Predict the structure.
Amino acid sequence: MHFQTESWGSYLPARSVGDPLERIERLARENAVVIFSISSCCMCHAIKRLFCGMGVNPTVYELDEDPRGKEMEKALMRLLGSSSAVPVVFIGGKLVGAMDRVMASHINGTLVPLLKDAGALWL
């Protein structure tokens, strides 16, 4: 497994345990802001930049760097009911959604309160 740190926040290898959906839920509960991503995805890059630009330090799980990432990606697609699995954002252990839901929350002003409630932002 690959562990790397960059300016995005915390990049952690996801541990291999159990059902992919249970694993996603467990990983989402462990940190205030969790992004499931693929390292070459431009939308994933944009969502990471959004959070870092707001002063949030998200934990990012790069699915393409995880041996069980494809299983997790399929579970995320089922969870979202979508053909595109990434980026997927959890705040405070709760599913916010993909890029469109995160951007809509940002534009309508509900993203910052979510981040504050999760302890990810201190404005």
In short: The chain has five helices and six strands. Residues 1-9 have pLDDT under 50 and may be disordered. The helical segments are 20-29, 42-53, 69-80, 99-108, 111-117. Strands lie at 4-6, 9-11, 33-37, 59-62, 88-91, 94-97.
